Amino acid sequence: MQEIYDFLKKCGAYYLATGEGDQPRVRPFGTIDIYKDRLYIQTGLSKDVAKQMLANPKVELCAFDGQTWLRVAATAVWDDDVDAQEHMLQGYPHLRAMYTPGDGNSAVFWLKDGKATFASFTAPPRTVSF
After folding, report:
1. Which value, in Å, is the radius of gyration of the alpha carbons in the chain?
2. Can you count the helices (H) and strands (E) in the chain?
3. Within a 10 A sphere around the Cβ of 96, how many other Cβ atoms?
4. Quick one: pLDDT at residue 102?
5. Coil, strand or helix: which one is 92?
6. For residue 57, what pLDDT is reported?
7. Could you tell me the CATH number of the domain that includes residue 10?
8. Backbone angles phi, psi at 121, to 5 degrees
9. Are residues 82 and 35 in contact, defined by beta-carbon separation less than 8 angstroms?
10. Domain count, the chain
């Protein structure tokens, strides 16, 4: 899990795919956190992405550092723990202009049953589960 976190932090941005009916939706994301031995992402409950993850929690994300790409498939689990929200926002203080822990909109999701694949054009893929 630490390796996945480090890779996503290095990339700065990754792309999160969710499902909306039979239509996939992809958008850039930038938050990643490890809290209580779980990998977390953050968004607002008022956003479509949160509504999509609540309706269909199967997600995938992808990031590229210029040489290697990472694909992660997981189940997003909403966590209403205010301490988890605070922990996330400590790492992303610029988001405090939009989110406050416990405000009813700030939302963190942890990634359950994750399968991460590191791949490149020069090495065979390597998969890890978390």
Report:
1. 14
2. 3, 8
3. 12
4. 97
5. coil
6. 98
7. 2.30.110.10
8. -80, -10
9. no
10. 1
pLDDT of 44:
98
- 39 within 8 A of 4, measured Cβ to Cβ: yes
Domain limits at 35? 2-129
Per-residue pLDDT tens digits for 4-54: 999 999 999 999 999 999 999 999 999 999 999 999 999 999 999 999 999
H or E element, residue 10: helix 2-11
Residue 93 DSSP symbol:
G
Residue 1, amino acid: M
With 0-12 / 13-18 / 19 or more C-beta atoms within 10 angstroms meaning exposed / middle / buried, residue 76 is buried
The predicted-structure confidence for 69-128, as pLDDT tens digits, reads as follows 999 999 999 999 999 999 999 999 999 999 999 999 999 999 999 999 999 999 999 999
Q: In terms of Cα–Cα distance, which of 41, 42, 35 is closest to 99?
A: 42
